[in-house]
Write a structure and sequence with these properties.
This protein is an alpha/beta fold and about 140 residues long. The chain has three helices and nine strands; from the N terminus they run αβαββββαββββ.
Length: about 140
Amino acid sequence: MSACTTTTSEAAEAPQAVPVNWQGAERASPVTLSARAADHIAKFLAKRGKGIGIRLGVRTSGCSGMAYKLEFADGPNPEDIEFISHGVKVLVDPKSLPYLSGTELDYAREGLNEGFKFNNPNVKDACGCGESFNV
């Protein structure tokens, strides 16, 4: 009997926590979801009837310089970097990854408000309205 183990094609195709081709992987952390955020996303995708996960990114905007982008993804873009967190696929474009590295996306209820909250360790400054940030 061989000490080697074989992998199924499904296991071989599964995205890794830190993709092999991710330059800078040794210096950065993956983007993750809290259990609450993953549950909310999974329920929304099931209700929506389509989609493979969530796509996160950043764009230039606001008084502090950058703002988060969040959208439900129906399919991956060729350049997307994929992570799996609590069973939910998280897609990030390579240009946004340095700004999102180590970020946890949470889903929180605060008073009458509820929504996604980015817990980003890279943020150095944020504007008072909470719409934009600087790294």
